[in-house]
Amino acid sequence: MIIAKKIVKRISNFFRENKLVCVLFILSTLFYIYQHYSYLSWDFSAYVLNSRYLFSDGTYFESQRPPLATLIIGTFIFLGKGAEYLYIIMVSSLFLYTSMKSADSFFRLANLNFDREFARFVFYFFSLSIFSLLLGLKEGTELLTLAFLELFLVQLFEGKISGAYLGLAFLARYQTIIFFPLLIFSGYFKKILKNVFIFILIIFPWFLLTFVSYGNWFTSFVDGYAQNVALRESGFMPFDFNDVVKVGGVYLITAFFGIVIFLLRMRKISRDWWKENKVIILMFIVSFIIIYSYYIVPFKFARYLFNLILPIAFFSSVFILTLIKEFKRLKIYKNYIFLLLFFIFIVTIIITTGRVYYERNSMDKFFDAAQDIKRFEIGDCEILSPHWVPVSYFTENVYPLGENLPYLIEKNKMILIFNEETLDDSSTESEISSLPVFYRSDEYTFYAGQDINENCSKKYIYNRTYVKEHCKFISERFAMLGLDSLIQKICESINLRS
After folding, report:
1. 8 A C-beta contact, residue 491 and residue 470
2. What is the Cα–Cα distance from 207 to 433, expressed in whole angstroms?
3. Which of 2, 33, 221, 463 has the greatest CB tally within 10 Å of its CB?
4. How far is residue 186's CA from residue 183's CA, in Å, rounded to a whole number?
């Protein structure tokens, strides 16, 4: 009872000390909940399916997915759909905490002394941009990854042990491994080794599970790399600066002026120059790493630049806070600036909510297809589709579509084709049109043989890996260096294979 009272008191004190920040948190969280209610994305569906597989006798599992979102949702899977909304609330709360922690740490380390509550509000405001709201939790892991990345950087910049947070960011999104070299800024050699050890300790249980399940420690990580990078190289897309504009929007202007302020400050040479400018230099390095990681990915989507929200929010906050500090007249109008930013946020919420409302029916076709599967009593049949994940979210009997469609029909498998292409579609219109139609709607068509209801191929547990021979796949990446044979031998020995 005493502990509960202390918790309630701390929460009430927090709300009293950070009123407008808490309003931003409540409104953004409500938006994320509404977005998920209105739109169920492919990736989010996959994380839920993985959670059911691990925690609730589910029948579908994708090995290439990093595990953190899956594990969080799976912990509360007994709540059904409620687990997904609880996950959203937890991630949004974590992002609030990390934003405030980041504001306190970054501005102090950069020797920028501002009113703490106002600095927190400004940094959190810029962190909740239109792009952050629309993409933060739409696919499931962007905001979660950024939250742990920020905690990693806070610990790193302050010279504290940071490996655990980098490990958690990695388990949220494998691409954050590109930040691993930043551990060299931990300080002395022993602290670097300690951070590396803790990083490995955090990710070890997941790699052990994949070793036990698939016989290879690197199964999930290599499958993720294969899906997003290695097997997409034939479709390499050039760098598109418009994606940077999508992430930053008008906040790129305020970020630019914040960068100018720091560049002018960095011109002053002093005995403590590195200490005074460490945070700024490292933030530039972080920005470069984020942009570089986007550049090397073959298929480029703006959300791959999501972590750029951090440096944009940091430099934008510096600009606003410096203006208020340097101009006495602006100090008088500080409360009005407070209200102006709050008004801009309200407009941002209205714009993003309108965008979600406009897209609210775009995923209905997958739900409708699932309803037809139940209506035709084919829930135990194996159904193949280019859009297998969003339908399987409802029925768990839809799997990836292979090639040679007539052969699949002969094997009593059902095929579900939507009037919408995916990146992996390989079937031609002529090939599809030759198939026997089972049922056709305005949005999709089921194809199957005549006796499908009596003799359909039955559904099964799907947990195949994306790559078949992982050691061979890894070694092939080093073929140009002539190290493929050595790498394969090392990989096989690690995985206890002769």
Report:
1. yes
2. 44
3. 221
4. 5
